[in-house]
Amino acid sequence: MVKITDVARHAGVSPSTVSYALSGKRPISDETRRRVQASVRELGYRPHAGARALAGSRANVLALVIPLRTGIHVPVVMQFAVSVVTTARRYDHDVLLLTQEEGEDGLRRVADSALVDALIVMDVQLHDPRLPLLRALERPSVLIGFPAAAEGLTCVDLDFRAAGELCVERLAGLGHRVVALVGSPPEVYVRETAFAQRVVQGFTAAAHRNGMASSVHPCEATPAGARRVAEQLLRGQPALTGVVVHNEAALEPLVDAFEQLGLRVPTDLSITAICPDELAAGLRVPVTSVALPTAELGERATELLMRKLDGDPEVPAATLLAPRLTERASTAARQAP
Prior knowledge:
By secondary structure, the protein is an alpha/beta fold. The chain is built from 14 helices and twelve strands. The strands form two sheets. A six-stranded parallel sheet has the order 2-1-3-4-5-11, sandwiched between helices.
């Protein structure tokens, strides 16, 4: 059993300094606090629950705010949640999952209670109504997603604009001249969900830069929705040879629909996607894709939040992960007409 004296010896401080660093009852320098916390993690020290309560320490609980709105792909959301929970446990914290679409009222209720120490917020909109409250809260927060105005916030995400561009650039490099984006469900765009909007921006900018004809098509996350979009594309863009998919639930049904309509992938139609690697690699026709790094994003968000809780003044306001594209069997050079 690791004792407080062991932590003190490892960190090179007195046992009382360890106690103050953990309880926050007396001011401790940031450098000393970080040294103590590093020793706590390395040695696996766990203060007795009763002693923690008497010391008035933290709740050791983080809130993960994921409103389960329509259009959200729950399996991917759960990948984020697992990553946050796993990382939080490394810091001896539990996670309270908030899934109701309660907006500011729900956030304020949780933040004003003693239930949680800090918040991770997902499904961020470009003009998210929760932002003024998050800026005003005394409890720290981290957003997985970038609103249009991120001043005063800490945000982390995949660079979705660059991801959209990367998919188009790959198709352009293979000679494709007519491309389409099959995007998220319509309600996701109505809400101005930030990641979906940024994929559209990147897709459109790269297509224009490469002189390509392009179009954007929201798609319901169902096989029937995928079939309707495939039929619409073939009617409206008969010269179409390249597709970018940003809709995890529709990816496999879309590939099937195109082939049922007579287009072979990749001989007649090249497909790229933005989705988790395991989804893209596991399809009947493995899909060239930009990975959705759910594990890394959840881990980064939690680590940034713990640094904020520890009073670290060097926490970066913006963390954008560069996209990574993996070539698979769904892309090929455009066949000459």
